[in-house]
Input
Amino acid sequence: MTSRLVCKVILLTTLYFAMTQVHANTDSGFDVVALGTGGGLRASNLSAFLIGPHNQGVSVACDAGTIIDGIETAINAGSFDQAIRPKDYPLSLTAYILKEHIKGYLITHGHLDHIAGLVIASPDDSSKPIYGLESVLRTIRQSHFNWQSWPNFGSLGLSPQLAKYSYITLAEAEQVKIDDTPMAVTALPLSHNGVTSTAFIIEHQQNVVLCLGDTGPDSIEKSTKLKKVWQHIAPKVNSSQLSAIIIESSFLNDTPNSKLFGHLTPQYVNQELAVLASLIDSPELLENMPVIISHIKPSLKQGQNTQALMLEQLESQNHLKVRFIIPKQGERWHIK
Output
């Protein structure tokens, strides 16, 4: 082989790997769809986020307060391509997303606004796992799938067990593969006014999304659970693997601490993010980090735009320069 030919082969090989790397980078990260963003009042818009590897046609739901209404809102918003449903699939696109696209549920805790959509959709859902800490799964078995509130669609609990959903118990800080997806999840407990809630660390390749359930600030909960989450996630920030944080801010700053009932406000969100900043190599690593705000409590006050006020209060103390996102139901993001 001549030296000229060798050079040509090397050049073509270099170009090939460069092109495949660009393609890989384009297809990296997560797709996140907000099926539900609210923390109460409206049953059609309660906490639920679909999280899946970008363009791979599968996802897991982080909480399931609203499912069908959220799917249909997302379809109407153009967040799902009609082409993902095979032409020979006999049911609607809504049914395809429910039955085929969603491969499982990560439930942070058993409160209705985080599981009602799953329960109501269960007769028409496909078989799949529900992942959670033992105390959370126990609540689902005892309070929801108990043949009094609802038929037992689970694989455990009161007989007869319809066994549509299998329960996968997550041990604290131990990573588990999410079935039928290339993702893995790690669960860490949170303190929610005496109830155990959960932070889920969802990983795919070199990308990580942190999805937190309801939680009060450590300072009010008299807990170190949020700090332990930040300690666990800090190495992911240092290695530029953390793609986004989904965190609740239920109330505005003027809400008294005694009325928070295990929730955050913009002030406490920024306070907790500052704890994370103190644990990483440099606070600048959090600049422009997408921080999606979940579980915003709707207001019945006439003329009050809670979402706009929430963003204003978050930004007023945003010394870390993260990118706060007030999500709209049905919205989709490609997060890298």
Observations:
- The CA atoms of residues 35 and 163 lie 25 Å apart.
- The chain has one domain: 30-335.
- Confidence is low (pLDDT under 50) at residues 1-25.
- The longest strand covers residues 195-204.
